[in-house]
Structures are given as structure tokens and as C-alpha cells.
Amino acid sequence: MDSVVLNIFTPLLNFQLLLLVAAGTFAGIYIGAIPGLSVTMAVSLLISFTFSWSTHEALALMIGIYCGGVYGGSRSAILLNIPGAPAAIATSFDGYPLAKCGEAGRAIGVATVQSVLGGFIGILFLAVAAPAVSEFALKFAPRDYLLLAVMGLMLVGSLGTKSTAKGLFAASLGIVLGLVGMDTLTGQGRFTFGQVRLMGGINYVTAMIGLFGLSEALIQVSTRNLPIIKQKIDRIIPSWGTLVKYLPLSIRTAILGVIVGALPGTGGDLAALLAYDHAKRTVKNPSRPFGQGAMEGLIAPETANNAAIGGAMIPMLTLGIPGDAVTAIIIGALFIHGLKPGPMLMLDTPDLFWIIVGCLILANIFLLVFGLTGIRIFTRLIEIPKGILIPIIITFSVIGAYAINNNIMDIYWMIGFGILGYLFKIYDYPVGPMILGIILGPLLDVSYRRSILYSKGNVLAFFNNILTNPISLTLLLLIVIMAVSQSKIFGRLKTMGSTSAENESDV
User: Fold this and answer.
1) Mean pLDDT: which of 109-123, 136-150, 155-169, 228-242 is highest?
2) How many domains does the chain have?
3) Is 223 a domain residue?
4) Which domain, by its residues, includes 107?
5) How far apart are CA 41 and CA 85, in angstroms?
6) C-beta separation of 374 from 122 below 8 A
7) 499 in a domain, yes or no?
């Protein structure tokens, strides 16, 4: 026990590790805030720089950038309606309306505190329940990932759309676009029309920058003469009453983030969207309507995507299976330093596990410090005249799109998605479901085909496996519940029930 405590405090007692975690967290916040400059890219570039470093030093810097980058995406999502990272897409739904009401400082303060809270809950699960959560995640079969993808598509009704038909259209178009490129199972080109440049597919980060970034700049052109909204920055740190009030929601969405993050290949992107949908379904009396600046709509995704960091670390450290793209790169870094992630890692080098936990704790402490500083400067972004702000947004969108793969084709894709997003917003079509479709399309496709292969092409055996497996059956029931709750019949019954309750109270 003494050795565990000593290893956890190693990053705090070692000045060099302390400095590296701090530098990584600070850099991650500002990398994450710039659309296109992803955490995955930053961590992958670090591998070559840290090749000659010690394992602890390399991990300290990577973990700092990881934690800071996931949070950093919320800054641009709140201030400019441009998610700096895919995990911040859901943050923009209510974060940006808060900024439009002049409450950007308060929104960033709440997002910071909730991100830190979610991060600590994720670390707690990593430290206490890592083997159990990993064993549970390992039981997920391809059919379970298929059901999880379908559950994700059920979020269409929660992603800022008043028309389910328009949301389904956008999601369907996103799925088709997500399938462009080389088939992962056969290696054949799909929807490429004989163009070699399309074999690599469409990067969803490029689509996100265009649909959220460039389209927002085009929308801002039409509103450039509107008066600038002055931001209220007198209260940045949320009160204890606010934290206690939303604590149950924070805990629920953090646990959801840990579980989703522990599933290989999912990560904070899907965790944040599922958390937003959960908040929208369970919160009876939000501070404001969802999509118009509801504090619950900001708290849920920001808690979940940072909790997913601890979740993604669980299968990486205990099974050698990456929970998301960043942990896949960290696995590569561990191999470079002569370590083999997996069950034997915790037996052979238990000190490394607890040092990683210590680095995560330290990164979240620095996240709170750095996250609550510089907010006054950041909030001034909204008060910049539109004639200056719009060219800056367009420039960052172009740079961000090119920086993903250093490919000029990504700029063309970004411009195309920007124009499409502009048309969508004009005709009141939501862009969130399209991004959701692009992200979940490949997962939906591969999981379905693997499930059918597992069932040897027998559809009846496929459904029998779903009905007889506890995990699959639970996911299926959740999908049915979500579908029923979104139906018009359920809405009418709910309205009739509330009306009758009001009549009884009047009597």
C-alpha cells in the first residue's frame, strides 16, 4: 500500500515530471481549442520527440496533452460554435447559446469544473475498478457494437432538430459519406467513382470543421451588422450550490463516459453525445430549454468526455486494447520504450500503472488551474468586430483542415462541407446528425457484417444471439425504450397525462 501511494505521488514529488504534465496540459488546452489540431495528431508527433526520453517523462507529457486537449475543444465550441475536437460537438448545442446570451465566462467556468470532476471520476474507476471494467468491455461482441451504433443513431432526435425527418435525412447522408473509401473488410473501393483520391475516405474532423466552422463564418456574414454582445465575466467559478444541484447528473454522465470510453474504438466523441441525450431525456425542468442555453446540456457532455479518458485507459493498461485513437498511440509509445501493454504490464511493472494514475490526477489539477485562467481574454473573442473575426475563423478552418493529413484535398472537402452546412442551416436542417452519421457509419457497417459472419450468414441465428445474450438483450431493450420515448404517440400520452394531472389539481 505504501508503494502504491508513493508511486501515485511520484509525478508530484519529481519536479521534471511535474513540469512536463503542466506543460502538456497547458499546450493541450490550446491545441484542442483550435479546430483541426487534434490531440491525436499532437500525441503522435510527440512519439518521435520523446524517443530518447525515459518512459515516465514521455507518458507525463502525453497524458497532459491528452487531458488538456479533450477539454480544450469546449472553448471554441462555446465561444464560436466551432468544436475544437469531435468530443466537444455536443458542448456547442447549449454552450454557444449561453455565449450569445452574454454568459460565455460562466459557461467556460462550468465546463472547466465539470471536466475536472468527470476526469477525477474516470481516474477513480481506473484506479479501483480497472480489471472489472476491462472484463466487462471484453465481453462486447460485434453485435453489441452494432446495437451501440444503432443506439447512437437514435440520438438524432436530441441533436438540435425540431423535425425528426430532417434529422434522419442528415444522419443518413452522413452514413453514406462515412462509407466512402476503402472497404475495411475486402479492400474494395466504395462510392469512389474510380477516383483514387477517394480511397482514403472522408475524415470526419474535416467534415466537422466545414459543417461547424466555415458554415458558421458564412452565417455570421449575414449578421455582421448586428450589435456585439457584451459578455458577463463577473462570475467565472461556479458556486457550490450550482455544483451540488447538478451533482447527480454529473455522476450519471461521468459513469456513462467511463463505460463508453472503456469500449474499444468509441471514446469521448460518442460518450459526450450519449450523455447529452441522457440529460435531455432525464432532466424534467432544465434551467432553459435544451438547445437554448440549458446548463444541463453543457454539463453532461463536458463531464462525460473527460471521464472517458479514464475509461479509455482501462482496456489499454489491463488488456493492451486501445479505448480510442489517443490510447492507441500511447500503446505504440509503450512498445517503443520496451513495454508490452496488457495483463502482464500490471504484474511486471505495477509502479508504471500508479504513476500513470498520478499523472492523470496532476493533469486534472492543472486543468482546473489553467482552465480558469485566461477566460477573460478568451471571452473577448466574441466581442471582436465581425469584419475581423470572420476572416480569422475561415483562416483557422483552412489551416485546421490541411493540418490533419497535410493534404490539400481536405481543404476542398472542408469548403464543400462548409457550403453544405450553410445551406442546411438556412433551411433549418441540423448538421449534428450528419457528423454523427459520418462517425457511426463505419462502426455500423463493420459491426453488422462481422455479426453476420459470426452467425455464418444465418439471420435467425443472429437475432437468437441478441435475444439470448444479456448484454445484447439489454442494449436492444434500451433501443426500444429510446424509440418509444421519441414516438409521437408517447408524446401525446405524456401530454394527456400532464393535462389530466393539472385538471385534478385544479379540482
Assistant:
1) 109-123
2) 1
3) yes
4) 2-454
5) 12
6) no
7) no
